[in-house]
Amino acid sequence: MTFPYGRKAMKYCCLLCALCLCSTFAFAQNALTLNAEYTLEAPSEKVSFKGAMGGAPYTTVFPIPVIPGERYTLEVGWDDGKSLLLFVQGNDPASARPSAPSGLTNSVVINTSGGKKALLNFTVSAKSPGNAAYLVFASNSPGRVIRAQIRNPADPDADVRARKLDGNLIGQVWTTPLYAIASIADPASSTGKADAFFPLNTWTDAVCGSEKRDLATFGTQYYYLMPVRLEKSGRYTLNVRYEESALVQVIGQDPSLRFQSHPEGTSLTATVNISSGRKETATWRVNFIVSEKSLGNTAWIVISSLSPGKSVRVMLSYPAVPDTEMAAPVNGKYTGEVQTMPLFITESY
Fold first, then answer.
1. Is the pLDDT of residue 269 over 80?
2. Of 5-14, 74-83, 275-284, 340-349, where does mean pLDDT reach its minimum?
């Protein structure tokens, strides 16, 4: 799923880590979601961390929820063909890096002199006392962009070892378990609902599930569902890229419940409805504002599909694109609109 990972927001994320704010806040705002592809961008200014691997001048870090004893696949792609250094480490990079117990490691790494894709299978040690690791992107140049995904369950080791690109093997299996000591607060612990949040300011490949779900709001379909935290009176842009029909919504309530009542003059949804997407109209957008009357801060990104596995690229931008820009045609087509009714959010998680 590319968190605040845009260049401006990336600097903000790095500043948070550098100031050693609590990991609960870091997770709630910036934790990567498993089984989703992110576009990650190195900071535009030099940033380093006391306990980060790699020692590169443009380093950025992302917390990842992990479970001791589980296996994971890290897949990364990049277009410039240059060398790449990408770590998963078991400690918070803002703190000094400790040594791992015998037979374990505090980091696993993709270290390649070139190429465009790489895979790594690894195991989080069952002896790990923590529930989080950190993805560390160590770049020698500012603004470098890569695409990364961490999957659980992991791909079969045999498949990873056999993966090739342009005739070259690109997969490896790390045999020494990762010792994870970092901890992040799980938002699901108190609500039983959300285990991650949709990122802001970064393109995310949102993939509908492989099994149908019956939701009170939309009926029985294949869904992509992800909570997102929004601010009251905040203005946002929902951006969607897809070349066929697609319905993408921001909903101000739990989508498993029937639509709830809301104040007059507000709406429970903000919607991009692509009836016939075209390649020349790359991005469809809607601007909306969160109602100051909202009772909470947690909305949901919802994509519904009649077929499984539908993948749509989505970005929620904050602050919003100017309304005047939304009204301008792109290649002669009007692909943006401004929703006048504020989005009402019913609760917080």
1. yes
2. 5-14
The backbone region for 68, taken as left when phi is positive above 0, alpha when psi lies in -120 to 50, beta otherwise, is beta
Residues 184-203 pLDDT 10s: 754 333 223 344 688 888 88
C-alpha dihedral (313, 317, 322, 327), degrees to nearest 10 = 20
Phi, psi of 29 (to 5 degrees): -95, -35
Q: How far apart are CA 46 and CA 55, in angstroms?
A: 11
192: left (phi over 0), alpha (psi -120 to 50) or beta: left
pTM (2 decimals)?
A: 0.50
How would you classify the pairing of strands 219-229 and 132-139? unpaired
Is the model's pLDDT at 167 over the cut of 60? Answer: yes
345 located within any domain: no
**Per the domain annotation, does 274 fall within a domain?**
yes
Which pLDDT score is estimated for 276? 58
Give the largest Cα separation in the chain, rounded: 64
Instruction: Show the domain range for 248.
Output: 203-338
Q: Do 60 and 53 meet the contact criterion of CB atoms below 8 Å apart? A: no
Given 188, 215, 241, the domain boundary residue is: 188
